[in-house]
């Protein structure tokens, strides 16, 4: 079913082995632009490993991850160095454990993400040193974009605070804002709702819907919070021990016996085998 | 009194040279957290190249000092930057993910290699040049002692201050500086935001080498003689200066350099020239006992 139309991201027969452990087994998946696709599954199902394969952290053992970029054509992400995944393929990710630049202000964090445009205009910082117009324009454009996302994510008041001092929920928002400043086509969020209170979590839902509906960004989500997943996802893929065990809309997933089994365990069967063993 | 002022001037000059070299140590440490022990030898290479360039320019009959100086600086900086780039590419980049000790040992190897290479290709003899900028300002005479500031000394001090200002601006205000600070804090994340981390690190090494090149040219003109072994002691002193000032801090590197330079020149004048190194390193130990992160360094706070 995934080959009928061209997806934004095409994962084909992806397998990732670490020695004897198969973290991802023959995973095929299509991600669409402007939609929210969630990857769920119990701990150790291979969700984060999957993200790591997308962003150049791991080289997959076999299989491919192809980004169908409207400008740059088909790009194989597993063959690209990390910085080109963001720069050329327009794929960015956030981390489960937040990775901001703690000694920089919120604004600076957002400007770093736009460095490519700035770098082009700055000619090895010379234009910046001399205060040339081309560099001033580029840096004004960067500021504007940063301000836009700061406003949208309600970070404007703290733009000049070092990120290391911010609360957990705020740091999460800064991380998402920073990812958005790269101008991604696909943004991969690794447990963005973890550690958020109910109000913040509801705001995250709104933001994700806003990004996909208004800005037509593809969102890929790893999340344990089913309130978020079931409310916002267009499509859900369930992993268990590296295998895709189900795929479909939230309703389909909620009623899928395989998924329920993976999450709640197979108590009866396990009990009997234990008794037999005893 | 006259003697004191004179030693102050000499100390400032010497300290400026240490400071310039220390800037390279501190920048490289800032970005990849590694002590580039070959940096002192990069400075030595620069000094040797500058002898060739200065001699060549003199042979070509270019005698206008400002022109000759500019040409020398540019040529030596270019060559030395290539050295800096190559050292990083050959000796450090393949070890980027290795344990911390590996690049350190590789750096010491690189330092020995550069020394021996220069010794083999250029010979072990001391290389002199003619005084390029003779002349001095006689500031005042006190008790029959004339305090002077030579043109070369003035140049070294001014150049150091200007370079410190330029580099502080680059690191804190420009796009390249921002990239560099981002790499310093989290290389992986910086790459995932589209920054070419390898290139940023290479550029840092090249800038550090260019600073060492400027120091090398200045010293060649100041002392008039260089040999293949000057890199070791100068590198050690500059490293001490960087740690004393707080490694990772640019003003700290220059401050540390000035303190070491002045301590050495006062110690030599009033106590004994043989023990000037002991004084410098003893001060380092004292400062680190009470301020482990150096004079201007930021203490590392580990979050748990």
In short:
By secondary structure, chain A is α/β, with parallel strands linked by helices. In chain A, 42% of the residues lie in helices and 23% in strands.
Structural account:
The complex is a heterodimer of chains A (278) and B (304). Chain A is built from twelve helices and ten strands. Chain A is of the alpha/beta class. In chain A, strands 6-7-8-3-9-10 form a six-stranded mixed β-sheet, sandwiched between helices. Chain A has a four-stranded antiparallel β-sheet with strand order 2-1-4-5, covered by helices on one side. The longest helix of chain A has 20 residues, at 133-152. The termini of chain A are far apart. Chain B is mainly α. Helix content of chain B is 73%, strand content 6%. Chain B has eleven helices and four strands; from the N terminus they run ααααβββααααβααα. In chain B, the strands form two sheets. Chain B has a two-stranded antiparallel sheet with strand order 1-4. In chain B, strands 2-3 form a two-stranded antiparallel ribbon. In chain B, helix 1 (2-32) packs antiparallel against helix 10 (250-270) and helix 6 packs across helix 8. Chain B is globular and about 65 Å long. The N and C termini of chain B lie far apart (54 Å). The interface between A and B is medium-sized, with 36 and 25 residues.
């Amino acid at each position: 079913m995934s080959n009928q139309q061209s997806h934004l991201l095409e994962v084909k027969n992806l397998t990732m082995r670490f020695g004897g452990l198969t973290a991802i087994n023959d995973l095929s998946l299509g991600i669409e632009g402007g939609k929210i696709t969630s990857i769920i599954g119990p701990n150790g199902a291979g969700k984060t490993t999957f993200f790591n394969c997308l962003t150049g952290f791991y080289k997959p053992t076999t299989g491919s991850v192809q980004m169908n970029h409207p400008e740059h054509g088909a790009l194989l992400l597993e063959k690209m160095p990390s910085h080109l995944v963001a720069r050329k393929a327009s794929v960015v990710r956030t981390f489960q454990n937040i990775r901001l630049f703690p000694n920089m202000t919120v604004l600076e964090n957002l400007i770093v993400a736009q460095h490519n445009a700035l770098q082009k205009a700055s000619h090895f910082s010379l234009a910046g040193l001399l205060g040339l117009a081309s560099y001033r324009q580029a840096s004004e454009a960067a500021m504007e974009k940063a301000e836009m996302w700061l406003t949208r994510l309600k970070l404007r008041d703290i733009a000049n605070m070092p990120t290391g001092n911010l609360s957990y929920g705020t740091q999460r928002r800064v991380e998402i804002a920073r990812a958005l400043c790269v101008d991604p086509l696909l943004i991969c969020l690794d447990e963005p709702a973890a550690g958020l209170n109910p109000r913040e979590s509801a705001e995250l839902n709104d933001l994700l819907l806003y990004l996909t509906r208004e800005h037509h960004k593809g969102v890929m989500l790893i999340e344990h919070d089913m309130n978020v997943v079931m409310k916002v996802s267009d499509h859900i893929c369930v992993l268990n021990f590296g295998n895709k065990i189900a795929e479909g809309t939230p309703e389909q997933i909620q009623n899928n016996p395989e998924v329920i089994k993976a999450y709640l365990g197979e108590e009866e069967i396990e009990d009997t085998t234990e008794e037999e063993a005893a | 009194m006259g003697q004191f002022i004179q030693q102050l001037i000499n100390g400032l000059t010497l300290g400026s040279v240490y400071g310039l070299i220390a800037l390279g140590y501190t920048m490289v440490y800032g970005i990849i957290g590694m002590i580039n022990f070959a940096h002192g030898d990069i400075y030595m290479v620069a000094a040797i190249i500058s002898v060739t360039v200065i001699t060549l320019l003199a042979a070509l009959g270019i005698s206008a000092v400002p022109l000759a100086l500019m040409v020398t600086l540019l040529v030596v900086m270019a060559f030395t930057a290539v050295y800096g780039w190559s050292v990083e590419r050959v000796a450090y980049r393949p070890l980027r993910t290795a344990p911390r000790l590996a690049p350190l040992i590789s750096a010491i190897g690189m330092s020995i290699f550069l020394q021996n290479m220069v010794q083999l290709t250029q010979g072990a003899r001391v290389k002199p040049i003619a005084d390029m900028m003779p002349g001095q300002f006689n500031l005042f005479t006190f008790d029959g002692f004339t305090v002077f500031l030579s043109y070369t000394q003035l140049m070294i001090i001014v150049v150091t201050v200007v370079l410190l200002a330029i580099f502080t601006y680059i690191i804190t205000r420009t796009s390249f500086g921002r990239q560099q600070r981002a790499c310093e804090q989290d290389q992986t994340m910086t790459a995932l935001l589209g920054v070419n981390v390898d290139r940023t690190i290479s550029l840092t090494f090249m800038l550090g080498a260019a600073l060492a090149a400027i120091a090398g040219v200045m010293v060649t003109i100041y002392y008039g003689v260089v040999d293949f072994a000057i890199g070791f002691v100068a590198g050690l002193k500059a490293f001490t200066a960087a740690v004393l000032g707080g490694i990772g801090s640019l003003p700290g590197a220059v401050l540390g350099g000035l303190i070491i330079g002045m301590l050495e020149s006062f110690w030599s004048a009033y106590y004994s020239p043989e023990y000037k190194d002991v004084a410098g390193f003893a001060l380092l130990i004292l400062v680190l006992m009470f301020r482990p992160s150096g004079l201007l360094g930021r203490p590392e706070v580990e979050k748990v």
